[in-house]
Amino acid sequence: MAGTGGVLRSGERVLLVDRRGRSSLVRLRNGGRHHTHAGVLAHDEVIGAPEGVEVRTDRGAAFVVFRPTLSDVVLHMPRGAQVIYPKDLGPILLALDLRPGMTVLEAGVGSGALSLALLSAGAQVVGYEVREDFAARAEENVRSVLGRDVPYRVEIRDVYEGISGTAPARIVLDLPEPWRVVPHAAEVLAPGGLLVSYLPSIVQVRELWSALVRCGFGRCRTSEILERTWHVEGQSVRPDHRMVAHTGFLTVARLLSPAPEGLGDPPGAAAEASADTEVAGPESTGGE
Ligand code: SAH
Questions:
Q1: Could you say which of 112, 130, 135, 197 would form a disulfide bridge with 173 (CB–CB 3.0 to 4.6 Å)?
Q2: Handedness of CA 101, 107, 110, 114 (dihedral sign)
Q3: pTM reported for the whole predicted model
Q4: What tens digit of pLDDT does each residue of 8-21 get?
């Protein structure tokens, strides 16, 4: 990955960035040639050079070469399913409160973008994916970036039918009906365990919250991440004209401990009360 030191070697994947900031990922081979919109770049110009070097095509066009960051990889990776974008991946990692070595159940794995982020943060990932072709692509994407030995296992199975064979500390869901997973999550997580779900529509979020409250989760919180990039060039320093207005809503919840027999309200009732008051928003910032 990026910045790991040493010169660029044959077999590595590198990011080529042109003068206008457009980039592509290329795997270096001795004697290889990369065709660009502005001529052909010989891989041998890059092999043996340090990161950050400027190289030129046979037509004189300049490219700067780096090892790709995780964000670069996610934005360029081959995909079947829609990937989760970098702006959301960072907050998901924090919402999950990951620690190195923690076991995370991820469903579905899609193209493996979220898997890459989880594994890079040190988690051991068990993925559930219904589509065999997606599972294979995710495994390939992940292992080609992080290596063959990374703690990653994708099982071809439907998570709506249950979770077994693993005791995850965290669960992260990127699929259309996460409320169907919530009862299973409540069975396998320990009290205090975290569940995070990524959903494109707020109607789905409403349904998810109902299931969370019903199944004994509390401290539910839903948010969206708006990222606005800036144009910085000479006297022209302003927000970019375009931004990605919507990707998905992040919802995080924690499993409550069942109250001992005959003591107080059932956990669902406590969660119901907090469900009405803890939607993330300006009115709730002082209450945290
Ligand atoms: N987070 C992924 C993208 C996931 S797309 C990434 O960043 O690359 C959603 C995936 O969920 C799809 O691959 C779909 O096949 C899978 N899926 C849908 N329903 C499922 C289920 N019930 N069990 C397991 N996987 C499911």
A1: 197
A2: negative
A3: 0.89
A4: 999 999 999 999 99
